[in-house]
Each structure stands twice: as structure tokens, then as C-alpha cells.
């Protein structure tokens, strides 16, 4: 899952980025509204954390432009402006949540998890696929009731595939979802993560199909 | 949800076309009756269909038997508290958006509520315009293009909102009927044993007999067969939802 932070305060942006990265998200940071519009047009993010008081184009305007381009990406406004009017204005422009600074990092992280969950159409904090269960809060996985060890990237790739069961996901889309700009992730690397996932999941009957020259598809789980 | 549906009723009268989304149904779970009444009035003014429950048990009972689009949930309730209500809902597969509205405003409580599956958390005291804006935001998200839908011929299930339509008309189903139908829909043209149905359906509470499953299936048939949707009995084993053919419909 990939998150864009738009904040000109590098201390806040850096702190939030660090926490979210430690939770396994791929995070990119920009300091200006114009850059945010550009980034959102070029890449696919799963969430945008947006400050309002920015140099140049402000956060309200960024949000307005994102929504007129029919971007459904969830947006969390994170701002020092905490008047009720600002909150109402931001939410009615299409924000999904509004958190006033100063804020508790643990609450922000929980709100991020809630927004990601909802946008991935997950009912609760637990994602179940046959014998596989992902606890997205504790970031722990279980296979037929036993704890399953997954490296950070393996988890990220699996999450992408689980969000699109029975739909083909291109390798490029997987890279988009799991790597930020600073990282060069090759198509080969994705193949490695998928083969490690297969080694762990296939014994339990969970299959990831290769769609030649394109990508992968997590198949619907069928009991035997 | 379209913007038009979010407008107060006095600005934009709702236009109900076949297949159009009906009014958003909202339940307030709050034991403080004067607060509940005030909230009901305020949200009804925004165009929602609002009801209230005074305890967690009542709220769970109603969610199981009627479709709701959104819950505004207090934590400090008589009997089981709001956290437990939320936990039971999510454990039972109910995906409707939940906004927690509570006097408990410690960060730990917020994190706990959100991680149990709440979509938003507002501490009391709160500003009514902000609550209304947060409810609008949740309505947008919960009923947007994002809610997963199951389509089977003339039947449409919105699994997030737990609502169904048949030939564009809202279809009323008891919670258990819904669960049985969902199990069958996940396995169209495959036989599902009665035991497997019980296992999938009985999650929320007690034991369920094979006879009870027969009753739910016969109620589903009464509702769906007129639209050409057939559930076949596989003698001594279970049921199979047949693929829908347009010509089969009468």
C-alpha cells in the first residue's frame, strides 16, 4: 500500500513517513501542492495525507482538483487549522478524514489503517482468504491457524493480490503499489517475492497464477 | 452515492427511479435519550432515514434484521459496550461504516475503536456541523463505487450496505436469509451442503438446525423464483443456486 504525504513541514512529514514505513507502507513525500497534483496524476496512491497550509496552492485547492479529476483516492487532511468551519469545508470538498495538529502518532496510524481498510472494501481489520488470515492491525499472518512469517515486501505483494482476487495484476502495478520513488524495484524482484509467497501458500491450496508476459492472479480459494 | 442524494430534502427532492439507491438509513446507538433525540432530528434534517437504539443488544438485533447504511455508536452503553458491539458486528461480517461518538477521548480509546473496525471516531463534546460532515464523508465512501456488489441476473447485492435489489426494486430479507443467499451466490452451479451453510451462517450466535436452513431456503425461493432465480435441492445433501438464464424468467 502506497501513501503520499503532502506537507511543507519536513519534520512532521519525516516523522509521519517513518512511522508509516515501519508499518509496512511505501511512503513518498512532497512539500508543495503542485507537486502533489503531478504525483497523483502519474502514480497510483492508496492514500494521500494532505496539509492545508502549503506554499503556493493550498491543501483545499489540491483536494478540489483531485476530486474534479474524479480521483477516488482516500484523502486525510492533517492540519493546524482546527476550526469547525475548516473541518466541514475539508470534508465536504471530499476529504475522508480530518485530523488537527498536534496529533498523536498512534491515532493517525489507526486512522490511516481505517481508511485503507475501507477503500479496499475490507469489512474489518482481518482479511480472510480460505485458510489464510491477515491481521492488518497487528500485521501478522496465519495459515490454517499457524503463524506465518512474511518479510515486509512479501506482505506488501500479498496485500495487493488479495485486494484483487481473480483479477490479473500486472507486475508494474505491483511495483507501483509496493515501492516508493527512492527505490528501484525490478520486475525480477517481484518474481522473487511471488515465488517465495508461492512456496509458503501453495501447500495450503492457495494458488497464484502466472499470466505470461503480464503479471499474476490470486485465484479464488476452493476447498478440496 | 451521488451528490444529489446528499443534499437536504428541502433543496433536492429525491427522485426514485427503478434501480436507484433508496434513502440512506442510519442508526444512532445512544443511551442518552435527549442526545439521541437531538441527533435524530439533526440528521433527519439532512435527509437521512434515522432510527435510534438505546442499548448495544438492541442495536445488534436490529442490524441483523434490517439493512442499515451507517451506525453512529456510543461507547458507554448499559449492558455490552460500544467496543463489544463493534467487535461482534465485524466478527459477523457486517461491513457497514461505523462512526464512534463518545465521551471517552483518550488516544488509546481512539486507537482501540478504529482498530476494532470503526471508520471514524469523534469525542464528545462535538460540533454538530462536523458530525454531519463526517457522516456525509462516510456515506460517500461506504456507498461509492467501492462497495463490492454481487450481481446474479436480476438480483443485485450490495455487500457493504447489506442491501439487495430484485429487478431494481429493494428486496427485503431477514439477516439469516441474506447469509444463506450469500453462501449460495459464492458457489453458483456448485452444490453446497446444509452443514456448510450452517457453518457459514451460524457465526453470530447459537446452533441452527438443518430444518431451519430448509425454512430459510424456502423463504428465499418464494422471493426469488418469480424473477427466474432457482435454488435446486440436491436430495440428502444440500442446495445449488442455478446459473441465471434470461429466458427462464417469466
In short, what is this structure?
The complex is a heterodimer of chains A (224) and B (250). By secondary structure, chain A is α/β, with parallel strands linked by helices. Chain A has helices spanning 10-22, 33-42, 59-68, 84-92, 105-119, 152-162, 171-178, 187-201, and strands spanning 2-6, 26-30, 47-50, 75-79, 97-100, 126-129, 132-135, 140-143, 146-148, 169-170, 208-211, 215-218.
Topology (elements, then pairings):
The complex is a heterodimer of chains A (224) and B (250).
Chain A: E1 2-6, H1 10-22, E2 26-30, H2 33-42, E3 47-50, H3 59-68, E4 75-79, H4 84-92, E5 97-100, H5 105-119, E6 126-129, E7 132-135, E8 140-143, E9 146-148, H6 152-162, E10 169-170, H7 171-178, H8 187-201, E11 208-211, E12 215-218
Parallel strand pairs in A: 1-2, 1-3, 3-4, 4-5
Antiparallel strand pairs in A: 6-7, 7-8, 8-9, 10-12, 11-12
Chain B: H1 3-6, E1 25-29, H2 33-45, E2 49-53, H3 56-65, E3 70-73, H4 82-91, E4 98-102, H5 107-115, E5 120-123, H6 128-143, E6 149-152, E7 155-158, E8 163-166, E9 169-171, H7 175-185, E10 192-193, H8 194-201, H9 210-224, E11 231-234, E12 238-241
Parallel strand pairs in B: 1-2, 1-3, 3-4, 4-5
Antiparallel strand pairs in B: 6-7, 7-8, 8-9, 10-12, 11-12
Helix pairs in contact in B: 3-4, 7-8, 7-9
List the keywords.
heterodimer; A: 224 residues; alpha/beta; Rossmann fold; Arc Repressor Mutant, subunit A; four-stranded antiparallel sheet; 12 strands; 41% helix; 21% strand; elongated; B: 250 residues; five-stranded parallel sheet; disordered N terminus
Number of helices of chain A: 8
Q: How many distinct folded domains of chain A?
A: 2
- The helix/strand class of chain A is alpha/beta
Give me the count of strands of chain B.
Answer: 12
Biggest sheet statistics of chain A: 5 strands, parallel
* Average residue pLDDT of chain B: 81
The global form of chain A is: elongated
Summarize model confidence as the mean pLDDT of chain A.
90
